[in-house]
Write a structure and sequence with these properties.
single chain, about 90 residues, alpha+beta, 2 strands
Length: about 90
């Protein structure tokens, strides 16, 4: 569980950049951490940011599941995107 704090901070940074549709900072965050946390769906999320219309994301939930038997963990989140006022 010693990596939980660092990996959660990384996750939350990625999610903040995703919510703001800031693809450059999303990629920079991954590069900064050298992709050491193996974010599943990273490429799909990066692509999503390129095709979504002007909108804002809001995180609905974020959790980490610890698997003691394998001494591993997985994080997961839910986010909703709503049109920004500029796109209306």
């Amino acid at each position: 569980r010693h990596l939980t704090g660092r990996s959660e901070a990384h996750d939350r940074n990625l999610l903040a950049h995703l919510a703001g549709l800031d693809a450059d900072r999303f990629w920079e965050e991954s590069k900064r951490e050298r992709d050491q946390y193996n974010v599943c769906g990273f490429s799909a999320l990066a692509c999503l940011m390129e095709v979504l219309p002007s909108c804002k994301g809001q995180m609905l939930d974020y959790q980490i599941w610890h698997e003691e038997a394998t001494r591993s963990a997985v994080s997961f989140a839910a986010m909703v995107f709503t049109p920004s006022h500029r796109s209306l």
